[in-house]
Every structure is written in structure tokens, then in C-alpha cells.
Write a structure and sequence with these properties.
The chain is α+β, with helices and mostly antiparallel strands. Helix content is 58%, strand content 7%. This is Delta(14)-sterol reductase.
Amino acid sequence: MAGVTKSKAAAAAAATAKTQPHGYEFGGPLGAFGVSFGLPLLLYVFTFACNDISGCPAPSLLSPSTLNLETLKREVGWPADGFWGLASWRVTGWTLAYYLLSAVLYRVLPGTETEGVVLDNGGRLKYKFNTVYSTLFTVSLVIAGTLAQGAEFPLWTFMTDNYLQLLTANILISMALATFVYVRSFSVSENPAARAPGDLRELAAGGHSGNLMYDWFIGRELNPRITLPLLGEYDIKSFMELRPGMLGWMLFNYAHMAKQYRTFGFVTDSIVFISLVQTLYIIDSQIMEPAILTTIDITTDGFGMMLSFGDLVWVPFLYSTQTRYLAVHPVSLGWLGVAGMGAVLVTGFSIFRLANSQKNNFRTNPDDPRVAHLKYITTKTGSRLIVSGWWGLARHINYLGDWIQSWPYSLPTGLAGYAVIAADSVAATAAVAAGEQVFARADGQLVVGGAARGFGMVFTYFYVLYFAILLIHRDMRDGEKCARKYGEDWEKYKKLVRWHIVPGIY
């Protein structure tokens, strides 16, 4: 009886926390507009400003006082037919086919069945997870194709030759998907008592402010699902989380590696290193796929433009920036450099994995000898907050490990920046005379560092800066959620665990 009473009290406390005013996040409607349309624009800027036509950055950008629009358009490869050239019906069609293939593999391949967390209505949604099998199946096909046709495998040339149009197609898909789930969310009753038995649809606590722009961005419905003809039901949020975008990230890395080989006739250790470690990161996250059910993305956030764009566009296109750069400007690390990058990576991964494993073991069985020594406080909701071990160092010590892991993605690009010049130009003669490292391309052009050296870091190191901001923002959001949920217990916890992410600093 005591256990039942405790369980009811915990549920009541959690429900109360969810109904408390959440307020706007991301700067409200104006911030939502800025993120929704500003970040796609940023990706276009990255695509044009760091290119394989003139350099990274384009030469004119290094002399803004003499900037000429026509010259800049030529340097960045602006489409001959203007804005219409940003998109292609053919590329969009193949992109949709890629999503359909992912949906079919989800349905036909075996997977594990599990239940999500308890919803406000007391029910649990069921999930099928088999993303890692889908990825391995797809990668097996492209490996076979590459072994048969080498770097000229049509998928690789299609992805690099139509990079701009692929970016546009995925942006449009993410916007269309966000709009679809937003409109459809109005069929969810805001009164739980009015729902039919077995109806587990519900609105996200912070997603129905009444402002169209903000709700479209943040997501009105918590777990939107759709039933497709012949294929059955899909949970849109969990499907998009680790499937098409994450695999796209991996495939873009391989496509850029193939492009480097087509361009120079060799593949450098730097691009292989980044592609390999990011593949391992992706596969690891997909093996651990059921763990997403306890993340803020699944339990708290609705599905709107924020997650749609992040999953389908931001991840595959921004996260592969480094291999896209190295495809045009090769960098060799040597064994010592590879070992150094590996050491940084292992350090970050160890912190990330050990911390997460400790928390998971404690949640699963607090009496487990591996975690029985940990100190904790018990909140009024019944939750136990760890205040020793890894989690006594910082409230999100796992974020520190995750951020350290991001550095080896950018460091192999070195002091980034290059210029693409003609082999018979004065600049080429000067570069050779100065002893600069010069790379000859298959088309006769040369790639040199020159005056651009260092300026390319704006593109290749942006990920590290962005990821730090992302993790700090996640920490802030989680802190606000916990403050609503735990009340005075959270204040007590913060006094025991002072640091957010980096012990002694933040």
C-alpha cells in the first residue's frame, strides 16, 4: 500500500510540473522564426562560401572592400538559372525515395519491441527499434557498389554533384513535415477526459502556446504518429531521430571520401579518421537506440520544425562539413597526429559512456554492486538524484565527454583555408616559389593554402562552437524542467552538485 501511495504521489507531482507555465524558449516567436529560417540560410552560406570552385572561403570574401556581386556569384558557383537552380525535381524525387526505403526497411527488418515512458494519461506507447539493422543493410549495399565501381559509384557522384539540391530538398521536406504534424495536432483533444479509450495522443506541455510560429517550431503534439498504406504505423519523432539524417551524415562522409579520391587519386588519413570515428559514433547511438525514450526530445518536446530540421538537415549537412572540406583540401596527419586525435576521442568517449552507464545501472538496479556506493537524495516525486560518483562532479558530466568528442571532428582540418587556382597562374608560381604545399587536381587546377589559410576555420570549427552552445542550452532547459518537477528538492540538489557541465568552471 505504501508503494502504491508513493507511486500516486510521484505521478501527481510530475503531472503538476507539466501543467505549470512553461513560458517561451528560444526567444519566443521571434527566436523561433530566426532559427527556422536563419539556420537553413546559414547552411546555404556554408555551401557557397566554402566551395571547390574558388576556395574556402571564396577569395572575394577576403577582400570585402572590393567585393563585386557578379564576381562573388562566379566564385561561389551560384546557379546559372538563379534561385530555381537551388532545387531539382529529379533530386527531390530521389530524396523522397531514400525516405521511402528507410520506411520499408523499418517495416521488413527485425527489431526489438519496447514501451516508452508513462504518459500523462497513464498509458505507454510501443516502439519498434531496428535502425542499426537498417543502417548495416544500406551500408552493405553501398560497400558492394563501391567495390564494383570504385569512387565512381553513382551514389557518391550523385551526392557530391547535387549537394546544393539535396540540401534544398531536405529543407523543404523538414518544413513540410513540421507543417503536417502542426496541422494534424489540432485533432488532439486538449481535454484528456474527452479522448476515446486507448487514445494515447497528447500535446506537448510547452507546445501549445497559441502562437502559430512558436508552436510550429517547438511542436504541438508530443508523439505524432501516422499510418502509411501497406506499411503500417510509424512514430514520426522516434523514426526521424536516428534514421534518415544520421545515415545521411554517414553516407555524405563516404561520398566526400570518394570525391577526394576522384579529385587527387588518393585518400588521406584525416578524412578516413573522421569518417571512421563518426561511423562508430552513429552505429553506437543506433545500437543504444532504446535509450532515446528517456531523452528530453522524446519525453518533453513536441515534434515541430526544431526537431524536423535538426534531424533531417542540420545533422547530415553540418556534421559532415569537415569531410566536405577535406575532399577539396587534403590534410595528412601522420601516425602521431592520428594517435593524438584518437587519444582526445577516447578521453571524451570514456567520460560520456562511463557516466551514462553509471546512471543507467543506478536507475535499473540501485543495489547493483557497481553503483550501490553512490550517494543520492530522494525527491518528493520518488526520483533519486545521484550526488556522488561521476554525477557528483557535474549535473551533466556526460555533456563534457560529448563535447570533448567533438574536437577530433574539427582538429584534423588543421589551420583550415585554401584557394583553388590555375596551374599556369602567377599565384601558382608564387606558391611553388614560397614552398607552399600544392595539391594538383584531376581537372588541372591547383589547391593551395595561400591567403585563405586560417579563415576556413570559420567553417570547419563551427561545429565545436555550435555543439558547446547546444549542450549549454540543453543543460539550461533540463534545469528548468527539473525545477518545475522537483521544486525545493532541486534547490537542495544544486547545492550538493554545484557545477553544470565542467567541474570547477561551469
